[in-house]
Request: fold
Amino acid sequence: MSIRDVLIVGAGPSGLATAIAAKQRGLDYALVEKGVLVNGIFNFPTHMVFFTTPELLEIGGLPLVTPYEKPTRLEALRYYRRVVDACDLQISFHEKVVEIEREDGVFVVTTEDGKGTRRARKARAVVLAIGYYDYPNRLGIPGEDLPHVSHYYSDPHPYYRHRVVVVGGKNSAAETCLELFRAGAHVTLVHRHATLGDSIKYWVRPDIENRIKEGSVAARFETRVVEITSSGVIVEKTGGTGVDADPVRETIPAEAVFLLTGYTPDVELMRRAGVECDADTLAPALDPETFETNVPNLFIAGGAIAGRNTGSIFIENGRFHGEQLIKVLADRLEHE
Reply:
């Protein structure tokens, strides 16, 4: 079995930027992706508009051309396909990493394809550019796995004239409520805090606040979901009931439920590889300058370094991680 210089896990923007840097430095690399190209962006809402400007999404020195001030999901997908073709990157799609072990200083990475076939790959170094969007924060409540419940939202059209409950209070929940409302759905927002999150896009906040104020979008603040049934969402008021008062429960009718409560990286994969992750924040132990973890020659790039604090790493800053860590790795391999 041949031994690569570096195995890169994840073909999102950070993983692609890492592969480009590895190729430019003459390293023998392999890039595996458990889903499709930029799988996280692919799973974003169909009509999503990025918060940032086009140049801040660019990698490999290739411009992202758009007639709009802010690029759309569709334009981003098209752009990253063009990057892969222009840089002639070799990617193994639908190949999920299930185990990372070390033998005599070399990593043995076991992968599994969609048919269940396993393969072992060897590399001197591994870069985990696995993001966090594939692992939703689960509520751990009855009914969470019912067929009409999802941790992802894509398109409003199927929910025309449907009663929909959206759980969450940050940007994704706000935008989802607005899209559903404008597509003719009857929407209720449920949020455990008293107010919406601070990270909501500046042009979205007044829109959602006004829709709630006028009653176009119903809202339940200081409220948590305790159970989901086939026909409704059972919620419990958490604020304003008094210390000795019994919690106030309500059943909100719903034909569809979106639990947009955030996401975290695949911490278990990192821990099985030997990476120390904080018990509370889930942040992996790594050098912020080199992105090398406590496991020698195992690096992390992009959103996976954020742990629970996913709002700290974006494409805009994560796209530079690969170039920095590949420089460290290339210099190290050159002197071995």
